[in-house]
Amino acid sequence: MRIRIMLFITLLMLTSSANAQRKKKNVRQPVPTAEELKQKEKMDRMTANTAQVMFIDSFVVNKSDFLSRYILNPEAGKLDTYQKIYNTQRQPNAYVYINELGNRCFLSQENNDGAINLYSSERVDNKWTRQTKLRGINDKQEFKRVNYPFMLGDGETLYFAAEGEEGLGGYDIYTSTYDKDTQRFLQPVNLGMPFNSEANDYMFVIDEYSNIGWFASDRNQPADTVCIYVFVPESRKTYDTEVYTTEQITNFARITSIADTWTDKQKLDQALARLQMTRDRSRQTIQGRDFIFVINDDITYYQLSDFKEPENVRRYHELSSLRATYNKITKALQQARDYWPTAPKDEVDELYSEVVATEERQIELYQSIRDKEKEIRNKEILFLTKNK
After folding, report:
1. Residues 69, 70, 71, CA angle at the centre, nearest 5°?
2. Measured distance CA(275)–CA(277) in Å, rounded
3. Where are the alpha helices (DSSP H) in the chain?
4. Checking phi first, is residue 329 left (phi over 0); if not, alpha (psi -120 to 50) or beta?
5. Of 259, 284, 290, 365, which shows the fewest CB atoms inside 10 Å?
6. Single pTM value for the model
7. Could you report the per-residue pLDDT of 322-331, keeping only the tens digit for each?
8. Cβ atoms 316, 324 nearer than 8 A
9. Using one digit for the tens of pLDDT, what is the confidence trace for 249-265?
10. Among candidates 46, 251, 63, which has minimal Cα distance to 169?
C-alpha cells in the first residue's frame, strides 16, 4: 500500500511538471511593434558601423555647469550659455558658440512651443546683429529640437545635437557642411556610434589646435549628471568584423570601457600630453596668462601687454595665424595619408601630388614659424637693450 501511494505521488509530480512545461511553452511572447522592429534594425545597423575612436578620458559632472569642464584653446573659440552671452534670464536651454575672432556666433533659441532651432549672428560696431536662422538645418522640421552648435575653424563644418525620429533616442549628434554656392547647409549626417546612443548625446567639439575632441552624454547617468568623454579625432574607420567579435563591437559602440580603446600606446601618450598642455594653458589663462613666450633665459611673456617693442604685438598675431594654419595643414595631411591605402587607382596620382605639395607647404610654414619667433625675440631684446 505504501509503495502504491509513493508511486501515485511520483506520477502526480511528473504529470504536474510536464503540464507546467507545456504551459510555459505555450506562453506567447509579446509581438514587437513595427516601431520596435524599426528601432532594433536601426540599432543593429549603427552598431555594425561603429567608428573606431580612442577615448583618453571620461568624467562625470553636474549637468547644470558641464560646459565649464570643456577645456579648449582660445584659437578653438568659446562655448557658453545664451543667458551669459546676452546677459538675460531668457532662453535657459539655449547655447552659443563664438569663433576665435569673436565676430561671429552660432546659437540656439527656443520658441514658445518648445521647439529649438539654430541661428547665426555677427558682431558689428561692438553689437550682435539680428539672429538669422541657419538655412538647410531643419528646413523640413525633421527635428523637434536643434541645439548645442559648434563650428570648426574652417567656418563651414558645423556640429550640433538634435532630437528627431531618425535618431537613436534623445539628442543625437549630427554634422553638416556649408555650401557656399547655394548659401545653405547640406543635409545633416548622424555621427552614429559610439558618439550617439539611446540617451542624450550632445555638445560635440573638436579643438583642432590640440587635436582633442569632446562630447557629453547622459547614458547610464542619474538625471542631474552627465559624462564628458574626451577622444582623439581621426578619419572615420569602422571595426573589422574579422578581427573583432560582435560582442566587442557592441561594447565599443556603447563605450563600455574607454581602456579597451587604448590600442596604440604611443598615440595615447601623445594625446594625454596634449590634453595636459591644454589644461595647463587654461590654468595659466585663469591666472592672467594668455600664452607662454620665452624671450631669453631670464624673461618670459604671458600676455600681449608684456611686449615692449611696439610692433611685436602685430608680429605675435602673425605668429598665431601661422601656427593655426600649420595645425590645419598637418591635420589635412594626416587625413590624406589615412585615405591613401583605400583611394581608387584613378585618384592615387592626384592624391600623391597633393600630399607632396602639402608636405612642402608644411615645411615652409614650420620654418616661417621658427623665423617669426626668432624675429620677435630679437626685436624685443634689441628694444629692451636700447631702453635700459
Report:
1. 105
2. 5
3. 2-26, 34-48, 82-86, 246-253, 265-286, 312-339, 345-386
4. alpha
5. 259
6. 0.69
7. 888 888 887 7
8. no
9. 999 999 999 999 999 99
10. 46
